[in-house]
Amino acid sequence: MSDIVSPDTPAASPVPPRVRFAPSPTGFLHVGGARTALFNWLYARKFGGQFLLRIEDTDRQRSSDESTRAIFEGLAWLGLDYDEEVVFQGANLARHQADVERLLATGAAYRDFTPPSEIERLRADAEARGVTFRFDPTLAELSESELAAKLAAGEPHAVRFRVPDGVTEWPDAVHGRIAFPNKDIEDFVILRSDRTPVYNLAVVSDDIAMGITMVMRGDDHISNTPKQILLYRALGAPVPQFAHVPMIHGTDGKKLSKRHGATAVGDYQHMGLLPSAMCNFLALLGWSPGDDVEVMTREEMLRRFSFDGLQKKAAIFDPQKLDWMNGQHLAMLPLDEVMPHVFPAFERLGVATREQLDERADWFRGLVDLLRVRARTVDDIAHQAVPYFRDDVDYDPDAVSKQWRDANATAEILSATRERLASLAVWDTEVMEAALRALAEELGISGGKIFQPLRVALTGLTASPGIFDVLLYVGRDRSLARLDAAVRWLKSDVTA
Fold it and tell me: Strand 241-245 to strand 214-218: parallel, antiparallel, or no bridges (unpaired)?
């Protein structure tokens, strides 16, 4: 088989590439599937091709409408738009069967009437002898009259592909040349006795019909590829290029599963992550853009995407890295791109209703812009925002022990702070800063001796945005009320 030029070179694509994402609707959209969809989308968009979606719903017992919706919703959330109508594999049964008939007509396939019970007996016998079971084609040999009689009687049978001699190889865009001796591939079933196609036949039939030129998928499919290449050739169709991307493992080095935490894309959507951050994180699972670049916008990912950066070794899904990545995107994205994701979090966590937020739209935008710098997720923003919405705050015990150790002295400082702030004609950050720094100088203390106790009085915490921004967004009346409450609390603690 002759080598194919790299899919990253113009010569490899005289026509725009056509790629597909083909999930089975037997569960929610897994992060591994989403990563595969993203790589296909990036490749199609970068080279002006088409990204197609096929729902492989031939497993009727395990497929569900709920899972299909989850796939659609997950792709929509990630912004991975597809071209053309969605293909449902189950609707293509007639074509699958027709392709099998073509293979039978050319002698590339044959009917196998061997009873399943006999196959199981032979398999068990092979296992008992410690050898790998391989189907013996002579079991299916029949004379023309015997075959005609069985067909006339309507006896159930499978159809097997007749594997030719030789070697099946291909230049994988990730792994380089991969070759399988055909002698190691048994004559595999392509149509079951109930007339439904086996995976490899259905996939090849659909990819031919859809005009797919590049099959990019997880490297757990490598063992399927030689069988599919043989089917392409037997059906007289061009063989697409293949790119097998690495599997995704957890931080323990084992295949990613629920024991590592959330594995469904929808879970991360509801955990306060941004789709841009999720795409950025997924892109780095098995691909490196070079130059030690990690944080990228979608446009930069498109510009940098190349098969040269795809890696052979398994990728590691690190939830902490994802949280960090999300924090980077929260801070760098235009505020208008962040705000649509913030509203649902505030409502879901009971911080404020959409109506309340709309009533103070400009103030709310400013607050989100203030808080997002210190946040890892959208939910973090909502949690940080609680002190700006409630009339009172809960004092964190650690904050009290650290910043309010001397209750009497702290009460005096906060009383003086309250008096100075109340005297201001303008509630402005520059004016407030000048006033409180002057107060610190008058009291003979550092500014921090005022600012840190004040932060606890306003938010109940030791960490927050700049104290003058906190005063501004908490507001004059509420800030003064919280100082009064803090002084009362401190004095009651002294007399208790």
Answer: parallel
User: Is 474 within the bounds of a domain?
Assistant: yes
Residue 423: burial class (beta carbons within 10 Å; 0-12, 13-18, 19+): exposed
In a domain, 244, yes or no: no
Instruction: Kindly report the CATH number assigned to the domain that includes residue 421.
Output: 1.10.10.350
Question: Whole-model pTM?
Answer: 0.88
Backbone angles phi, psi at 219, to 5 degrees: -75, 0
pLDDT by residue for the chain (496 residues), tens digit each? Answer: 333 444 554 434 568 999 999 999 988 899 999 999 999 999 999 999 999 999 999 888 888 999 999 999 999 999 999 999 999 999 999 999 999 999 999 999 999 999 988 889 998 998 899 888 888 888 889 999 999 999 999 999 999 999 999 999 999 999 999 999 999 999 999 999 999 999 999 999 999 999 999 999 999 999 999 999 999 999 999 999 999 999 999 888 888 876 666 678 888 988 889 999 999 999 999 999 988 899 999 999 999 999 899 999 999 999 999 999 999 999 999 999 999 999 999 999 999 999 999 999 999 999 999 999 999 999 999 999 999 999 889 999 999 999 999 999 999 999 999 999 999 999 999 999 999 999 999 999 999 999 999 999 999 999 999 999 999 999 999 999 999 999 999 999 665 5
For the annotated catalytic residues, the residue numbers are 258
Residues 6+ apart with CB under 8 A from 116: 193
Identify whether 5 is part of a domain: no
